[in-house]
Amino acid sequence: MLLNCYQNELLEAGCDEAGRGCLAGPVFAAAVILPSDFVPGELTDSKKLTHLQRTKLRLIIEKEAIAWAVAAVDNIEIDQINILNASFLAMHRAVEQLKITPQYLSIDGNRFKTYPNIPHSCIVKGDGKYLNIAAASILAKTHRDEYMERISADYPHYQWHQNKGYPTVVHRIAALEYGLSPFHRKTFSVTQPQLELFSENEG
Predict the structure, then answer these.
(1) 165-200 pLDDT tens trace
(2) Concatenated DSSP letters for 117-132?
(3) Taking each helix axis from N to C terminus, what angle separates 131-152 and 51-64, rounded to the nearest 10 degrees?
(4) Is the pTM of this model over 0.90?
(5) Which ranges of the chain would DSSP assign to H, the alpha helix?
(6) What is the sign of the dihedral through the CA atoms of 157, 161, 165 and 167?
(7) Where does residue 125 fall: left (phi above 0), alpha (psi -120 to 50 degrees), or beta otherwise?
(8) Which of 149, 134, 144 is nearest to 45 (CA)?
(9) What is the distance between the alpha carbons of residues 18 and 97, in angstroms, rounded to a whole number?
(10) Is 146 annotated as a binding residue?
(11) Which residue, 108, 141, 137, is CA-closest to 123?
(12) What is the pLDDT of residues 45-64, one digit of tens each?
């Protein structure tokens, strides 16, 4: 069973990102402050849930959270500052947009660039341990999926409505055949072997 948050002394926001391993589109991040009496239901790591479960949970989270925000860093910025820094920046932007300023941040993963004046902890696989991070993972993923489905209409051959910009075989072949779209990350090679390490269902 997931705990509500990492610590209980300070008002905490859970943070997570989605789309780090994609060939195209922005990286999205979310920050969520949950009430202490939040009822989790099916809430867990977004990668373990179906699209329908994530969609239902998004509505619950957005309704019941004390505060939540979603932000993005686009492919042009990703190419300028690299994907790791872009992930940190997206999380910073999400925290900035919260209507209530948190006193503590719990971050999914093992690295983070300190947000000004707010202490944090990095938690490996935190989206499977703490509800506020799991909630952030769901908001980041569902908002990003929605964005990729929307822009897919103008670039149907990449099939972003299905792969959401991840390096599937179909997506790679289309990128090689049709070239890169304005939404592709130019610093991500279509044929780069390391991309095999990223799962299509990754955050």
Answers:
(1) 999 999 999 999 999 999 999 999 887 544 443 433
(2) T--EEEETTGGGTBHH
(3) 120
(4) yes
(5) 51-64, 75-81, 83-97, 131-152, 160-163, 169-178
(6) negative
(7) left
(8) 134
(9) 17
(10) no
(11) 108
(12) 788 899 999 999 999 999 99
Walk me through the domains of the chain, giving residue ranges and CATH numbers: 12-190 (3.30.420.10)
Q: In this structure, what are the phi and psi dihedrals at residue 173, rounded to the nearest 5 degrees?
A: -60, -45
Extract the tokens encoding 106.
């719990």
Element housing 67 (H / E): strand 67-73
Q: Which residue has the tokens 């490996």?
A: 124
Please state, in angstroms and rounded to a whole number, the distance separating the CA atoms of residues 134 and 115: 20
Q: Which residue has the tokens 């703490």?
A: 130
CA atoms within 13 A on the CB side of 24: 28
Supply 49's token pair.
């849930």
Residue 108, annotated as binding a ligand: yes
Is 17 labelled as part of a ligand binding site?
A: yes
Residue 5 CA to residue 105 CA, distance in Å, equals 10
The answer to whether 75 touches 185, Cβ cutoff 8 Å, is: yes
**CA gap 102, 192 in Å, rounded:** 39
